[in-house]
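Workshop exercise sheet. Pairs work together: one partner reads the sequence aloud, the other fills in the structure field after running the prediction. Swap roles for the next sheet.
Pair: D.N. / O.F.
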Amino acid sequence: MRYGEGLLEEIRRRTDLVALVGRRVKLVRKGRVMWGCCPFHGEKSPSFKVENERRTYKCFGCGKGGDCFRWLIETEGLSFPESVEKLAGEAGVELPKWSPEDEAREQQKKSLHDVIELAAKFYEAQLFDAAGREARDYLKGRGLDGAAAKQFRLGYAPSGNGALIKHLTEHNVTQDDIIAAGLARPADDGKPMRDFFYNRVMFPIGDGRGRIVAFGARALEADAKPKYINTGETTLFSKGHNLYNFATARSAAIKAGTIVLAEGYMDVIALVRAGFAHAVAPLGTALTEDQLHLLWRTAPEPILAFDGDAAGLKAAHRAAHLALPHLKAGYSLRFAFLPSGEDPDSFIAHNGSGAMLGLLDAALPLSQLLWRAETEGKELSTPERRAGLEHTLKEIVDRITDAKVADYYRRGFDQLVFENFKKRPSSSQGAAPARPFQPARPGDQRGKYRGDFKPRPMPGTADSVSPVVRENRLVRAVVAGARETKEREIGGMLAQEPQLALRHAEVLAELSFVDQSLDSLRRELLNLAASGSSLEKAGVQTHLARMGMADLMVRFAPRAPHPYTVSQAASSEPDVDLDIGFLNAAKDLRDLAARPSGRVA
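Structure field:
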């Protein structure tokens, strides 16, 4: 419902903003203003101000600010009406009464919440009853014990067609309410009313406040179709507007700075149990616009984790195009793909949570996914096909309604097209330009054989180049190859031990790299070192992933331990050998860069 400004101002006036913010942030008084470290971005010195007089908060580092309602929206992921209701209750402000019709609908919803909660408890009890043995065996086969079942309130719908109806009727629930809650199918063609779910493992689905509003159900029969079904549309539940585990994940996602969308219930349960409490899933359908906005209300760059098969790629591409019209500054998507044949449940079971974290940290930005979708595995060797690619990329950009974001996408795609298809390779150093062919004039003896004269070599052949030029070219080729090898060696050491950039920042800053990717890695490591970062490997990987450079560390990572680190296990100072190796490689690279372009000395 709508709230008048006078009512909202009364709630603001009665709310102690310092106390509200102080629940999450340690505040220190300086004069009449409270200061603390901003909860929205990492900082070491306080730049976050809270004022009760103005009833506002403001961070001068990241720019976030607002009133008490905005604070709950930003920190708890509540909607505006939810924040009003919560603060009004705490401040003792009575909200206006609804119309009789509104009140009747609200009372019906409350009644249906009670009915669904009663059904959830029934399903939970059935899981641990003798009839639920098959369901328990199924869950054990998926690695879930009794504690996991209780944590997620899993249950079992008995195979009989009327067990739940009988239970609810005994608790004085009317048939109309049972049907309205989506728990039973109405009588039809002389058939009695029957349970909507039977012989299935039950997954309760909560709303944004954690109240159970529906169920997902997995069939136990191998040939059952469909394998998964959900509660139908009700006054409490619309599957396109909800996300599985959202209420629990919301607060965890705000702390983590991101939220992970998996494909199914079991994936979410596996992720949560592995430490990823900020995991959610759609409810048996492709991602919808409403679900996308739910994700963005919680985190600016949600990670969508899909299976690495054809279906997973198709779902990712569909989600990417769904997001295009809604992109805005700071809000996008990232995509993580599991190895083919794996889902989060199996991947974590086989590889552990650390591997899953690495996969999520290396998630692709939306722009990279779109480029790969239009280029990988496609034949683009002809001008017509490349022109078709440019046309498709333009159509993608045209779907982005935010002008600034669209402009950046347009520039990015233009650069990728140029680098991949239009950029001319640089000519070899010292190569003479080919001379145009000139036919001999009548009486001209040039080019004819005589006893003491050989024909002029064709331009571009080995015979046309003088011995000195050939030798210089050979020197340059050898030096270039040696530089490439040495740069790969340095890149491998930096990927293996990023803290080298911290210990030898001045040396690294003075080096000149031909490899632009290595130069980018060097620049990012030096920036992190200058900012005070410890350059731990995991932290560097996370930073590079957020900058869209997740492949840098992978590209330079040595396939085998670096020769300078072989003896580290037995060394009393394990960094010494690697430091010596890095400094020696840096000296070699400087010597190669200073090599004259003429004859070998």
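Discussion prompt: The longest strand covers residues 212-219. What would you look at next?
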